[in-house]
Write a structure and sequence with these properties.
single chain; about 270 residues; alpha/beta; Rossmann fold; 11 helices; globular; binds adenosine-5'-diphosphate; binds magnesium ion
Length: about 270
């Protein structure tokens, strides 16, 4: 077997793509669960007002739940909203509620509007240390499908960007806009930010289109694209309705195995 080592420092990945429906949330939830399954301490931060990552991991996020909204807008400590995932050890979640839909506008007039998540996260790391809790190994931030201030906050808080790309027509459309934004953030707000990982999602090996997308992505992102591809899978699609990741829902399914492999690759590439 392979040995997967803990990273020297907490790795923070933002899962971003301003297109909706490309597999951001599915990837966040299942990579996080796969890494927890591999024995790492993992935190998921849901910053999409839809709260799909919270739902998928079985975390309450009704309108009256304290959430990442209160952290970003009212300076609530992240520690006060971090919730344990009910099905999995070593996995914690910061839920999003519908209030976050207004945050994009509320943030505009706040001090340090781009750095609020970064500060909250760094304070949280410190508070875990003070409380003698184990260090987190991985943090994943599930972004909304836009390039607004929520996504900017995620990119400022992270060191790495993970871009899921759906193996469909128009897969690369809009990507240059995302890359330009990342460059701007790198230049002005977060010099360490880099696109570290591209993950191909909803791959269907029976279609020519899918293999065309794969070669095109490999041409543009030879160093970033993982060899593990996520297949289109019914098990992946139905797991959220049981409030589970595919890792706990059906660990032997091709979808679960693909996410476990992608997670191992992410670990190894960081070593
Ligand atoms: P995003 O967060 O980018 O909007 P989602 O992760 O919510 O995208 O995925 C969009 C839809 O596609 C969801 O209904 C999800 O269940 C489904 N989906 C994602 N990945 C897969 C997959 N590998 N196989 C089958 N369905 C998938
Ligand atoms: Mg989503």
């Amino acid at each position: 077997g392979r040995t997967l080592q803990r990273p020297e420092n907490t790795r923070i990945l933002t899962v971003s793509n301003q297109k909706g429906g490309v597999g951001k949330t599915t990837t966040t939830v299942n990579l996080a669960a796969a890494l927890a399954d591999h024995g790492f301490n993992v935190l998921v931060i849901d910053i999409d007002p839809q709260g799909n990552a919270s739902t998928a991991l079985g975390i309450p996020h009704s309108a009256d739940t304290d959430s990442v909204y209160d952290v970003l807008i009212d300076d609530l400590a992240l520690a006060d909203v971090v919730t344990e995932c009910p099905d999995m050890d070593r996995l914690w979640v910061v839920p999003a509620t519908i209030h976050l839909a207004g945050a994009e506008i509320e943030l505009v007039s706040l001090v340090a509007r781009e750095q609020r998540l970064q500060r909250a996260l760094q304070e949280y790391f410190q508070s875990r240390e003070n409380d003698g809790q184990e260090r987190l190994d991985y943090v994943f931030i599930d972004c909304p499908p836009s390039l607004g201030l929520l996504t900017v906050n995620a990119c400022v808080a992270a060191q790495e960007v993970l871009i899921p790309i759906q193996c469909e027509y128009y897969a690369l459309e809009g990507l240059s806009q995302l890359l330009n934004n990342i460059q701007m953030i790198q230049k002005h707000l977060n010099p360490v930010l880099a696109v570290s990982t591209i993950l191909l999602t909803m791959y269907d090996g029976r279609t020519n289109l899918a293999s065309q997308v794969v070669s095109e992505v490999k041409e543009h992102f030879a160093d970033e694209v993982l060899s593990a591809k996520i297949p289109r899978s019914v098990r992946i699609a139905e797991a959220p309705s049981y409030q589970q990741s595919v890792i706990t829902y059906d660990r032997a399914s091709t979808g679960a195995l693909a996410y476990l492999e992608a997670a191992a690759e992410i670990v190894e590439r960081g070593q």
